[in-house]
Amino acid sequence: MAAPMLFTIFLGVFVRIVLFNSSLASWLADRVEVSTPLTSWKSVIEGITLLQNGISPYAGDVFHETPLVLYFFHHVLSVGPWLVPTVFVLLDLITACLLHAGAGHCLTYLLLTQSKENRIYSKDADKLLIKRSDILDLPRLVASIYLLNPYTIVTCVGQSTIVVTHLAVAAVFLFTTRGHRFAATLALAAATYQSLYPAMTVVPCAMHLVILKAQTGSSVVSYLSSSSIKSYISTTVMFIFWLGCLHGLSFLMLDSWDFLFSTYGCILTVPNLTPNMGLFWYFFTEMFEHFRHFFLWVYQINVFIYTAPLAIKLRKHPLFMMYIQCIIIAIFKSYPAFGDTSVYLALLPVWSHAFYYLRNSLVVGVMFVLSSILAPILWQLWIYSGSANANFFFAFTLVYNTAQIFLATDVLYAFLKREFALVNGMKPTDKDGNTQQAVLQ
Amino acid sequence: MAAPMRRFLCSAAVVFMWFALPCFTLQQDQNVESFFKSGHTNNWAVLVCTSRFWFNYRHVANTLSIYRSVKRLGIPDSQIILMLADDMACNARNPRPATVFNNANQHINVYGDDVEVDYRGYEVTVENFIRVLTGRLPPGTPRSKRLMTDDRSNILVYMTGHGGDGFLKFQDAEEISNVELAHAFQQMWQKKRYHEVLYIIDTCQAVSMYQLFYSPNILAVGSSQVGEDSLSHHVDPAIGVYIIDRYTYYALEFLEKITPTSKKTMADFFQVCPQHVCRSTPGVRTDLFRRDVAKVPITDFFGSVRNVELSLTTVPLSNETESTEGGAQVQKQGEEEGRKEQPKRYGFVDQFPAMAETREKETSVSKVKFSSQFLVASSAFLALVAIIIFGRIAS
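^ Those are the sequences you sent over. The predicted structure of the assembly is below.
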């Protein structure tokens, strides 16, 4: 790799190591914006201690980590506690590498598709085209953003186990772009096993694998041809097989299915209403018991329901659909934290060809910065000084989530506008030569 | 010889009857008496006023009047738990500072200078009340705040304040429900914290508070039925508020005439405030009480008449101060005699039983044993994953 890339890697690792050795590490591990009840390091330690004392880690309500991650960290800790920061930094590095490779392959694929469809593009859309140099520049940018993003650094130093999920999601992205069905479904099963929501990325994964398979044949992709259906079914079957393997291994490890209630049960039924950067806790704190089930269903369906319209609209661009799904998961999952933005913020440059049409970039950027600075301050005021209350903190959680929603809608809009402008030109004119305006309806 | 024999037998039978029958009846009487004899040895009282603020003067006056009666009849302060908001005597609106009266003629200052309020002000909460009853108080609680009763204690529980159907309002901030109260009394029964309880409640819809009791030996009386209000008796124009409630006023009238040697029974007490006087209909609950209320003296609950038990059998006490040498000597004697009980040694149970087991483990590295199935399966899975991932990356 080139020197600038090595420099960024070195800088990222250096910043993490410096922060690990400062007092910031333990402070960050306790912050609610960084660690959630599902991913906090303290509960991992609790689970390992319970395991060492012969008690099932899932007996109480403290531990919500999956058994195989418990197994992994148990072995890491039995080597020595000094190994843990190294493992976290390594996980971040591997994720950055996977994102680098994934971005590279995605851009290659986009460039190939662009070159195939060049003849239907209009003449004045040159500004919107992907350049060949992007294949080298942008993946470096992706990896740098992932390594140097303050959100990612804070999550790594806070030892939140969401880094494992990020690794799995980055692997899904990489293997989907490369078309390796076994590996992609394996990574997808790992991500679903770890936190339930990436399960909905099976749809764009299957769609992209169909496209790749069809590309080797004819250039027209039909999602309903028999070979496509065979491809879907094999993807789904393989995904279920890998998921079954992982769950079976977890069952064999502790000889009980208790872990399902502690992991999936906790994700779905949201029993723990510790404040975090999400939308669930505030609403369910003030919810009457009578309505709790109804609103749980509403909130959980809300996460998954965007798959259908996105699949219909973005049926030719499943990789972009996977990206939007990452953003949706980060916004609407039951226990989000600052770290959930890492993967999609890192992958944002891959679609930089659509940035011409971004409208809200300043607003989104300012909202992110504002909420990141003010949320901890208002937390301090609420919990420690007692001069604010939950509404203040929740307001900035809302600002943070609104920033993410604006980002998702803006990127989606820009992408679709670009698709339209590529075919119809950047300044479409009607028969009389007047400029037409394209409006998204 | 038959006739003299018969005569002798008849006279013997008569003499026998003459002496035996009274003995039998005496025995029966004794059985009857012992059946109705009260089994308590000490008396306690828990007097709770659940209101605060000046306009609830009458509730404090109620409670303090009962307090005075109970003290006069012999229950000492150490066995009375008095829970008041205690904001009347020194209230800025009290035209007679440092006093609380229960009558417009202001004969008796029920506050006095020897009142001992155990829970005052904001300490009168539902939680504290239930903790007092059930005995689950924090370790540092002083004796004056504890209800240290046993299974031979008769307890008088008097509550007054603002109530409703099934609840009683505590200090305008929270409520105690009749369900909680019933469960508290059941906890007391299971922990053998009372022999009998007399529960008096003077609030609106008072009867609802004792309707759900299910523990034995509770006698309950309420000042009004469900759907009725308990009314106050009269206003003292000099003080400016109602100063006593009807039921307690008439109850006190009754209690003023009681002395520690009085023969009045609980049945008389229950007649104390009929509807034409009290305007509300008092209710009584006797189904949980095992004795006949007409035979229960009123001093069983309001006074502190101690019952003394005489026993004619001797109770051997063990010599608990054996020294080790003496013990050895005794042991030798015991061996000679054939049987001597080893002095039992008692110790505390380990505080953390799991720690006792893991102390052995700590010497070696704490190892977790996973089943061999899992190890085989996981290694196979890892091998498969490695092949796939690295195969793909290489290709």
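Chain A touches chain B at residues 51-53, 55, 68, 71, 74, 78, 175, 178, 180, 182-183, 186, 245, 248-249, 252-253, 255 (CB under 8 Å). The CA atoms of residues 428 and 437 of chain A lie 7 Å apart.

Shout if you want it in another format.
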